[in-house]
Amino acid sequence: MVKRSVEDWVRFFESTLLLIGTALFLSGIFFLVAFNWSFLDRFVKLGLVGFLILLSYAVTIIFRKKPIYFEIGLTLIFFLTGTEILVFGQIYQTGADVYDLFLGWAALTLLLIPVSRSGVVTGLWMVLSATTVFLYSKQVEGNGSFILFSITSLIFGGTGIVFDWFKTDRFSTKTKSFLSVLGLLLSLGFLNLVNVNLFRNHKEIDSGHSYLFYQILLPLVFYGVFYSYYRWFRFRLMNLSFILLFGLSQVILKSADIFQIWAYSSGVSFLQFGLFITGYTIWAVSHLQNLRKPIPIEEGKP
C-alpha cells in the first residue's frame, strides 16, 4: 500500500474543495436565475449567460498555467454555450428540432477539444455528439437508421482505439484509457441500437441479405476486432469486460430469434433461451476471471 505524504493530501483536499465550491457557485447562480427567470427581460437573459461565458473565458486565459482552474473554465464554457443556445431558442421560439440545438452546441464547442488537456471536455463532447446523432435518427430518420448508427459506431470505435494507441503528452495514460473506454461504450451502444431496431422491425426489411449483414456479419466483425485488439494488442481488462457485457445483449437478441421467443412461445423455447443466456454468462465470467490471473514467472527469469 502506497502511503501519501502531507503534500499529497493537501493537494487532494484543495482540488476537492475547489470542485465542490465551483459546483455550489454554479448551483447558486442557477437557482437564483431560475427563481427570477420570468421577471427578466429577454436581452437580460441572453446578456447574463453571455457575461458568464466571457467570465469563463477570462478565468481560462488568466489561469491557463494552472491545470485545474484551466479545465474548470473550459468545462464552464462548454455548458454555458449550450445554455446560451437553449435560452435563445426558448425566447424566440425558432421551431427548430431538438437535435439542431445539440448540433449547434457541438459545432460551437468543437475547438475546445484541442485546447483541453484533461479529457473532460473531450469526453463531454463525445457524449454530446452521440446524443445529437441519436436525436437526429429519432426525429428525422425514425427507427430505420441502420446505416447512420453503423457509421457512428465505426467512428466511435475507431476513436477509442486511436486514443488508446497513439502516444501523446497532451493526455495522461489514465485520460487516454478513459476516452478509450468511452469510445468503446458509445460504439457498442450504437451497434446494439442497430440490432434492437432490426429485432423490432425485421419483418419490414426488404432484403434478407441486409438483415444478415446488420444482424450477423456486422456484430461479428465489430466484436471480433475490438476483442482481438484489447486482448492481444493492448490488453485492457475493463474494455474486455464491457465487450462481453454488451455481447450479452447480442446473445439475447440472437437467441430470441433462434428459439422464437414471442408472446405465445412454448415453455421449451423459453427453457432453451434461458439455458443459452446462462451458459454465455457463466463462460463470460469465468473467462474474465482467467484473464485477471497473473502470468506465473518461471524460475531463473527476471
Topology, element by element:
Elements: H1 6-35, H2 42-62, H3 67-92, H4 98-108, H5 120-141, H6 146-165, H7 173-201, H8 208-233, H9 237-258, H10 267-292
Summarize this entry quickly.
This is Membrane protein, PF09925 family. The chain is mostly helical and 302 residues long.
Quick tags:
302 residues; mainly alpha; 10 helices; 0% strand; globular; disordered C terminus; Membrane protein, PF09925 family; transmembrane helix; transmembrane; DUF2157
What does this protein look like?
- The chain has a domain at 39-113.
- The model is unreliable at 296-302 (pLDDT under 50).
- It is mainly alpha-helical and 302 residues long.
- It is 77% helix and 0% strand.
- The radius of gyration is 24 Å and the shape is globular.
- The two termini are 23 Å apart.
Instruction: Quote the beta fraction.
Output: under 5%
* Contiguous runs where pLDDT drops below 50 for at least 5 residues: 296-302
- The value of Rg in angstroms is 24 Å
The major sheet is characterized as: none
End-to-end separation in angstroms reads 23 Å
Please state the structural category.
Answer: mainly alpha
Q: Give the integer mean of the pLDDT values.
A: 80
Number of strands: 0
The helix-strand sequence is HHHHHHHHHH
Provide a count of the helices: 10
Based on CA inertia axes, which overall geometry fits?
A: globular
> What fraction, in percent, of the residue positions are helical?
over 70%
